């Protein structure tokens, strides 16, 4: 893996992490730094996968770019969607409280 591949993965990860956070609607429980870090980590994973699969010396950098972007986008969207709402939305119900059906 070359230095340009690492720099490209860093740029792609930061861009996808930032844009992916803006694209998913609603409030986010995931902090900005985590979406950016996930984008970078997933883009690096995409670069590693392309490096393992595509061994041609004259390989197109487009394949690496598309794979990095796809890995980063999936990771960021999954993180933001699975985190759900804010911490206040996920409070445990009070066991002493009555349900609406009981009233």
Summarize the structure.
The chain is an all-alpha fold and 103 residues long.
Protein described:
- There is one protein chain.
- By secondary structure, this protein is mainly α.
- The chain has one domain.
- Helix content is 64%, strand content 0%.
- The chain has 3 helices and no strands.
- The termini are far apart.
- Keywords: Membrane, Transmembrane, Transmembrane helix.
Question: Main traits of this protein?
Answer:
103 residues, mainly alpha, membrane
Low-confidence stretches: none
Q: What kind of sheet is the major sheet?
A: none
Summed up, the helix count is 3
What portion of residues belong to β-strands? under 5%
Helix content: 55-70%
Give the termini separation.
65 Å
Shape: elongated
What Rg is obtained from the alpha carbons, in whole angstroms?
19 Å
Order of helices and strands: HHH
The strand count comes to 0
Broad structural category = mainly alpha
In round numbers, the mean pLDDT is 79
Number of domains: 1
Secondary-structure blueprint:
Layout: H1 3-23, H2 32-53, H3 61-83
Helix pairs in contact: 1-2, 1-3, 2-3
Transmembrane segments: 31-53, 65-85
Protein name: GlsB/YeaQ/YmgE family stress response membrane protein
Keywords: Membrane, Transmembrane, Transmembrane helix
């Amino acid at each position: 893996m070359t230095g340009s591949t690492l720099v490209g993965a860093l740029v792609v990860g930061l861009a996808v992490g930032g844009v992916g956070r803006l694209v998913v609607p609603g409030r986010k429980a995931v902090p900005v730094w985590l979406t950016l870090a996930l984008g970078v980590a997933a883009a690096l994973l995409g670069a590693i996968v392309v490096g393992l699969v595509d061994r041609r010396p004259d390989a197109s950098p487009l394949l690496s770019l598309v794979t990095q972007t796809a890995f980063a986008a999936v990771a960021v969207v999954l993180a933001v969607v699975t985190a759900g709402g804010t911490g206040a939305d996920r409070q445990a119900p009070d066991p002493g409280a009555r349900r609406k059906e009981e009233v």
